[in-house]
Specification:
- By secondary structure, the chain is an alpha+beta fold.
- The chain contains three helices and seven strands.
- The strands form two sheets. It has a four-stranded mixed sheet with strand order 4-7-6-5. The chain has a three-stranded antiparallel sheet with strand order 2-1-3, with no helix packed on it.
- Strand 6 and strand 7 form a beta hairpin.
- The termini are far apart.
Length: 149
């Protein structure tokens, strides 16, 4: 059965996609939760209008996301932390700290979007990836330095 998704559903599709699902899944889950509508002749004009609106929204979001990605790429963050004499941190750098530093620069991202290639436990320069979408993953430079006493 072909349905138009009205909201994003993990492992099924994005809002505005027309996908094929089983009739039971549609009747028992998608329809009661208003996550999809059936594709048929009666609601064909509604579906066309809905798809046009979704496409315009996707284009606007994609433009905003690409602008945000450019800002992130050109950003260099400096994190001041207490550390041992040999340059090791007392604790590892976490996503909350990176989110807070980005917020100070006017860039809002969630902690789940921050990806470290490895745990940061010492001073130095590190690349941190921000996952904005499945395709857009800009990388910024994080410099960890000793906090002045």
């Amino acid at each position: 059965m072909k349905v138009l998704l009205t909201k994003d559903i993990v492992q099924v599709g994005m809002a505005g996609d027309i996908v094929t699902v089983t009739e039971g899944y549609f009747r028992n889950y998608l329809l009661p939760h208003k996550l999809a509508i059936e594709v048929n002749e009666r609601n064909e004009s509604y579906i066309k209008n809905k798809m046009n609106v979704v496409e315009r929204k996707k284009e606007a979001i994609e433009t905003q996301t690409s602008m945000l990605a450019e800002r992130i790429k050109s950003t260099q963050l400096v994190l001041k932390r207490k550390m041992h004499d040999d340059g090791k941190l007392y604790g590892a750098v976490n996503a909350h700290e990176v989110v807070d530093l980005l917020a100070e620069k006017g860039i809002k991202v969630g902690k789940s979007q921050i990806e470290f290639p490895k745990t940061i436990k010492e001073k130095g320069m590190f690349d941190v990836t921000i996952k904005l979408s499945s395709r857009l993953k800009p990388t910024l430079t994080l410099k960890v330095v000793a906090e002045a006493l």
